[in-house]
Amino acid sequence: MEITFLGTSSGVPTRSRNVSSIALRLPQRAEVWLFDCGEGTQHQLLRSDIKTSQLRRIFITHLHGDHIFGLMGLLASCGLAGSGQDVDIYGPSGLAEYLRACAKYSYTHLGDRVRVHTIAPGRVHEEEDFTVSCGLLKHRVPAYGYRIEEKDRPGRFDVERATALGIPPGPIYGKLKKGETVTLDDGRRISGADLCGETEIGRKIAYCTDTIFCDGAIELAENADVLIHEATFAHQDSQLAFESLHSTSTMAAQVALAARVKLLLMTHFSPRYFPGNSLDVSNLLEEARAIFPNTKLAYDFLTHEVPRNREMSEVEKSSIAPPLPKTVVRPRKN
């Protein structure tokens, strides 16, 4: 699983940062999922090594322009390119009407290959290997965060041991690889778990933007391998965050700490913190790391590979400190 940031600015693009969009690449199945699609996203895709022909699903957080103005152009270009790939789009109420209006007045025919799904809190998509759920955040308009979960799977199947046990190859191997228990013709019951290595724990990613600090973000990010969270403002500009219902760097770090995530990737930075100003994004990073040390700044075209997990042994589990309480010090309006 690879995360590629296609836009990391808030509100408007800058020379070095485009507006919101993130691509999740699933290399094992040659498929790409997009989260938000701000203006210029298709240009960012062309500048990256991501193939638009592999675009299969698009998840929209909310209907502000810096998150959707690139959607119609991308869909139209894909159609003109003749890729023929089905695209499922998930987003809040009003997204389908927006796309229909765009198609009507631009005389664009999307056809049946584009399907729009109106989301509500809970599971929005499930397949053999993944589930995607969403939850309400706290913003000026209805906004949702997403949680992507890879399902656990058994470890490497020991073919040599299976052969030594006299288990005939074929469909039985497939069941054993899934961890199932099978009964052989001679009456022996064989557990697939005994023939597989350590369980590969599914990876978890949370994507939370736009929002001010809220419990919904903590719930979505619970024990995630990666939390992608907006950090529009520096802590000293918290008043602006409260007025616009965006997050500061310290709010993003508080969510990461409360949710016990492994890594925080901050994005959606206000142009006011770009080089040459009194504060820049390095100051936001310093603020966040004071609360949650394993924090990194996202930038356009940053690609982060989410490593595979494995089930911990009892010895490893016993060496881990107990989880922190969920309660955190909430920011207050001055």
From TrEMBL:
Zn(2+) 2 binds at residues 66-67, 210, 268. Zn(2+) 1 binds at residues 62, 64, 139, 210. Its cofactor is Zn(2+). Its EC number is 3.1.26.11. It catalyses: Endonucleolytic cleavage of RNA, removing extra 3' nucleotides from tRNA precursor, generating 3' termini of tRNAs. A 3'-hydroxy group is left at the tRNA terminus and a 5'-phosphoryl group is left at the trailer molecule. It is an enzyme of class 3 (hydrolase). Keywords: Endonuclease, Hydrolase, Metal-binding, Nuclease, tRNA processing, Zinc. The active site is at 66 (proton acceptor). Residues 312-334 are annotated as: Disordered. It comes from the Bacteria. One of its GO terms (molecular function) is identical protein binding. Residues 18-268 form the Metallo-beta-lactamase domain. Binds 2 Zn(2+) ions. InterPro entries: Metallo-B-lactamas, RibonucZ/Hydroxyglut_hydro, RNase_Z/BN. The keyword Transit peptide does not apply. NCBIfam families: PRK00055.1-3 (NF000801), RNase_Z (TIGR02651). PANTHER family: ZINC PHOSPHODIESTERASE ELAC PROTEIN 1. Homodimer. Belongs to the RNase Z family. Zinc phosphodiesterase, which displays some tRNA 3'-processing endonuclease activity. Probably involved in tRNA maturation, by removing a 3'-trailer from precursor tRNA. This is Ribonuclease Z. It comes from Pannus brasiliensis CCIBt3594.
